[in-house]
Amino acid sequence: MNDNIDSNETVINLIDEIKFLNKFRKLLIISSIFFGVIAFVYGLTLPKEYVSKVTFIPTDTNSASASSSALSGIAGLVGVTVSEGPTKKSIALAVLKSNIFLEEFADKNDITRYLFPEAWDKKNRKWKTEKPSGDSIGSALRDLFSVSGSQFDIYELEFEWTDSLQTSSWSNLIISELNNHLRTQDIEEGQKTISYLKNQLKINDVKSIDNVFFQVMEEQIKSNMLSNVKDDYIFKILDKANPAGDPSKPKLLQMFFVGSIIGLFLGIFYIYIRHRFFKS
User: Fold this and answer.
1) Phi-psi region of 76 (alpha: psi -120 to 50; beta: other; left: phi over 0)
2) Which of 112, 174, 230, 270 has a CA that sits 20 to 30 A from residue 198's CA?
3) pLDDT reading at 12 higher than 70
């Protein structure tokens, strides 16, 4: 019985509050529209940001590199077990976000000056003080893109920047440059492995081991040759990024609605404060 009375009183109080606020509906409408317009105008002053997406897949999910496999095979001769280690794909994804690669990518494609416009002298085309550090460049670029993947090894890189053409260009370039970076790295490691095996052949007297060295060298040379002719070394682009027509930010309509809601609540707050002040 008491519960029904309480619920009825709550409904009555709510209706009274609505009737009370309805007296000031013009003020609430003006407040809501005013703050909505302010939020909209503020959004117009913000820089536009565009998003471009590139879809890619790994071309090889085997172990890290031929040189690693070669050294594992040699270690097996003396009874040492060497784990295969991470795959090429996992290494490539880690390198993609490394400071060393991102600094190299930014320098090669003249991106650094866009990341730090306040430190770049446009007139003289040089840095005002000194070039930003590799850590700063890496951090700035990592904030601009993200990588997501599915269980089917299909990956999507999303790049966000203030220029539509640059956004799509950098999205495609970063995958291409990653392939080139890892190809060069693996070829250099392969050359070191071949040099090492040649030196061992000179000092080794066991014929059976010499045969193994020759086999390993042959595999490494083949691997280096294939690396040189393979364009999609680690990742293959399935769908290239295209320039976005409409900006992803700022979202002007969303900002208007949020501003309007804030204005409505501020209006209600003002009405109750004013009512209590004059009532007291």
Assistant:
1) alpha
2) 230
3) no
